[in-house]
Design brief:
This protein has 288 residues and is an alpha/beta fold. It is 30% helix and 27% strand. α2 (72-85) packs across α8. The longest helix is centred in the C-terminal third of the chain and has 16 residues, at 246-261. The protein is globular and about 55 Å long.
């Protein structure tokens, strides 16, 4: 049974499109376990209001559904809010596309960002990070019956058709560094890549293994695809926050430690990313 599958929207949906996360939960047909994990992870009440940015289009990590928001990043954000601001904190959600994350933080539109947000030197000049709370790596996903690529060495001479998402450098990096003979096939987003992979128009999709695992765990695709288990890069996911807010960064780091120590991190990971070949251990805090 998948627990904590969906964190339902609460009683208020603001005109700005922010979702107030309440204490209900479930996946439309599962039993009380799902609701309980959602309630434990995502509080709602009469306390302080905190706005968190996340992705709305990444299964397993941050996905907006008719029932609310679903995913590992969502559960992590909810846990952190509850740990810092208490049981009755109100969590409002705002969509945080990759290109908008720094602006949302700088402009004060969000308090925190949990949105597959890789810690790197250039971003760290603009915003602060806590964490990381997940260490991802670039990988490739292929159809379950595809066996032409088994090791990283096999990539060198392969002319595989590799999905390239407009605006992303993941596929270009693989072609440049690992698979110079690859043929890049460009699509507008990873959902389109998944359709292309399903139909055979492309042989592989590449991005962070956490994102690939989310798609592989999606009910629409379960059993169709596999991750190859390559660690082509390190992608430490941090919690983004305003530059210079050392006090908040330290509190978020403590919340992440609590989440790991009490077993919630593993519970969230298993529920949202566990139905694929993706494996990860809780990371060490580096942003202090």
């Amino acid at each position: 049974m998948r627990i904590g599958r969906v964190l339902r929207a609460g009683a208020v949906v603001a005109a700005t499109g922010l979702i107030l996360a309440g204490c209900g939960g479930g996946d439309g047909g599962a039993g009380g376990d799902e609701a309980q994990v959602a309630a434990d992870a995502c509080p709602g009440g009469g306390g302080k209001t905190v706005t968190i940015g996340t992705k709305y289009d990444q299964p397993g990590l941050g996905l907006k559904t008719p029932d609310g928001l679903d995913g590992f990043d969502v559960a992590v954000g909810c846990y952190i809010a509850k740990d810092i601001w208490g049981e009755d904190v109100n969590v409002k959600w705002r969509e945080a596309p990759s290109e908008e994350r720094e602006n949302l933080i700088k402009n004060g539109d969000v308090d925190l960002v949990t949105a597959t947000y890789t810690i790197d030197a250039e971003r760290d000049k603009i915003v602060d990070f806590a964490g990381p709370y997940l260490m991802a790596h670039q990988d490739l996903m292929v159809r379950k019956d595809y066996n032409e690529i088994k090791t990283e060495a096999d990539l060198k001479d392969s002319d595989l058709k590799l999905c390239s998402v407009t605006g992303s450098t993941s596929a270009q990096n693989v072609k440049q560094d690992f698979a110079p003979q690859a043929n890049l096939v460009e699509y507008g987003g990873y959902s389109e890549c998944m359709t292309g992979l399903q139909s055979g128009a492309v042989d592989a999709v590449t991005t962070d293994n956490s994102i690939l695992a989310g798609f592989a765990s999606d009910p629409r695709y379960q059993g169709m695809f596999k991750l190859l288990g390559f660690n082509l890069s390190d992608e430490p996911y941090g919690v983004g926050l305003k530059e210079g807010d050392t006090e908040l960064r330290n509190k978020v780091n403590e919340a992440i430690k609590h989440m790991i120590e009490d077993g919630s991190w593993q519970e969230f990971f298993d529920a949202h990313l566990g139905e694929s070949n993706f494996q990860a251990d809780p990371p060490k805090i580096t942003e202090k």
